[in-house]
Fold these 2 entries.
Entry 1:
Amino acid sequence: MYNNDIMKRKKIIIGNWKMNLSLPLAQDLILKLKSESEKKWDVDIAVCPPYIYLAQVLNILKGSKITVGAQNMYYKEEGAFTGEISPLMLKDIGIQMVIIGHSERRQIFKETDSEINLKVKAALQHDFTPVLCIGEDLGTREKGKAEEYVTQQVTNGIKDISKNDIEKIIFAYEPIWAIGTGKICSGEDAVKVNKAIRNILKEKYSTEISNKIRILYGGSIKSANFGEHISNEDIDGGLVGGASLKAEEFAKIIDLADKAMVTI
Ligand code: 13P
């Protein structure tokens, strides 16, 4: 049964486009999504295009209920950091959300927990909603250490974050072995990790605070495999990669989240 605190957690579906699409394809996708979003969806929706398309996407989505987020951000405000984008720049164009610590950033671009912690703090300081990603690799899962590993990543990522700020973070559990592989983590296993994340938040802050925080799942989500996950009270939404690149499929995933809200 859902209790009152959990009922207040609105589901959210976030599309992470990664380094995909051309400008015409991005525009086409977003126009379709915008018109779909005019139907009565009682869930939060966000898209995170590559930096270079953010301004155009924001422009098209002006006045719609879809939030636009960035896929990354540097923690410094300005300076000699070739190739980086600062919080002030994202603020300037009207961005409200930023993905931080995606496993591709951690693995390919070698971002560390302490850098990610600095980024989360910078995002909060500039009033963004940080979407903090955490997740274990296959070896860690096979050793039965997924919960322990993810709990440690969360602990490092939220170091020195106040009670006031912690509620503004959205957590996204994305097991690395499930990203882009077509192998979704079962609802049961995802729930176990999400519960472990909520427990650590409960320990560090309070039950009341932890119950307000949204914890998502991500990794090979499709409309055909996400129903079990999204209808669970411990999965507050999805961070969707490949399936967010097709308007119809992404809309079907949002539909699932919407139905899950209605059945609460
Ligand atoms: P896929 O949905 O393509 O597996 O990607 C998940 C992801 O990394 C979202 O951030």
Entry 2:
Amino acid sequence: MTGASRPLVAGNWKMNGARAGAVALASALVDRAAAEGGLSCDVLVCPPAHQLFPVLDVIAGSPIALGGQDCHARPDGAHTGDIGAEMLGDAGCAYVIVGHSERRTGHGETDSVVREKAAAARRAGLVPIVCVGETEAQRDAGRALRTVEDQLVNSVPDGAGASNAVVAYEPVWAIGTGRTPAPGEIHEMHGAMRRLLAARFGPDAATLRLLYGGSVNPGNAAEIASIENVDGALVGGASLKAETFWPIVRAFHDDSSPT
Ligand code: 13P
């Protein structure tokens, strides 16, 4: 249940697929969005970098937005293999994921690196989706809240607000595992994140979108969407097929539609 005016359902395609499949998936999503005749949530796809332009061609003029999966903190220069936030903007992106746990662990990204990337995204006019989340060991040790609060304090740049930042809570142990926290655990974490952001950023933080990510699927999306302070989802595996991604979009659409 969202405090934000419009939930956001984002598909993180990670390092999957080739151009033809990306175009087919994007087309299927455009068709489904058209069939809805108006959505009460925002929908975003974050393909691998080489698929951005072909996907942009397909989604142009549709309600589906485009995002990157990571950006460098600097706009350009000698950074082989990286992509700047301005470049993502040039490729049609409106959002970029930063600080995903697969970047934090696979590429050694610290909170301060994530914060610089989020600031770079804003510099480029993109909305950063700042990811936080505890490992299983941290949860087992009773340190889940503390871990996420520390990540939030240190990864979210100053001046964040509802219009220029999104936060995604992705427990590392729930990513790609089919396991999710109990609804009460998501409720507790999202409430704590909301309070922390409100203390730092004031009333605007009440509508800053807090996404849940980690094994979201068509079977659990409605329950997750109904949790207070859950303003959308960041979806990995289930975002790779329209048949599994669109029911998740619909769950958040239904949750935020006037009854
Ligand atoms: P899964 O939905 O595959 O668990 O991945 C979640 C995720 O990492 C999204 O960024």
